Amino acid sequence: xxxxxxxxxxxxxxxxxxxxxxxxxxxxxxxRTRAADLIAQGQVQVDGQSVxxxxxxxxxxxxxxxxxxxxxPLEVVPEVVEGIGIVHDDDSIVVIDKPVGVAVHPSPGxxxxxxxxxxxxxxxxxxxxxxxxxxxxxxxxxxxxxGVMVIAKSEHAYSLLKNAFRERTVDKTYHxxxxxxxxxxxxxxxxxxxxxxxxxxxxxxxxxxRPSVTHYETLEAHRFASLLExxxxxxxxxxxxxxxxxxxxxCVGDLTYGADPTLAKxxxxxxxxLHAVRLGFEHPDTGEHVTYETTYPEDLTHALAVIRDAH
Length: 311
Description:
Distance between the termini: 62 Å
Shape: elongated
CATH class of the largest domain: Alpha Beta
Number of domains: 3
CATH topology of the largest domain: Pseudouridine synthase
Order of helices and strands: EHHEEEEEHEHEEEEEEHHEEH
């Protein structure tokens, strides 16, 4: 019963006088708990009237039940997502340009589009290694971060790339527009990152966190913000955002990590100015070093133009 299911049955004589939840359990093959939940949600009527779970049923009464689709939050739903660009595709890998607002794979609490759902919907066969909801996934980008990423199509590619990311032999280059001017203009942030003690959706520099290393250099310095090129040595969740916030130079638009909402509004951003511009690694089949690049999407291009023009 995964489809939304609407059923009407009359109560047989044998269930006369039973509680509604018990009768439902018998008639529809549900657990008593599930039946009670449906009654509490107002999905059950007897002879057109709402009922409580402990009400009794009479023989011949019409039991009207709507059973909503039960959704597995980790199920990969094949669905072509507008805006995902294919940068490169061969037998062992597919390289995509991920737009903002798309998660890499399904997770509890996320009901929006995903990269793995798109690839399934567009007919790509990807590696089956890894948990079912993230097969073939060897790296991740935040929902609010756009840019280049690689997905493994063959098992061979999956194991080699997974290892390359683990061994830090992959060149991961991002561009970030951050508030103010980092001092020095180029440097390295070496500060462990762990879950934020007060907010479980955030991360922070924590003494007992996991080792995290970010290298940055300033490409452009403007009145309100600086455009940085960032190379990641490690790949922690939210790493660049956390490290920049720790330097007191959060990514423009990154309200989660302390960015100025007035500036975000001024440049028209509803997410952090952060883009994965380049990815370089040894191709799993040929062994040669390959590099893939993507350009800034429209919202980031616009925000950067506003910053460049600000006097």
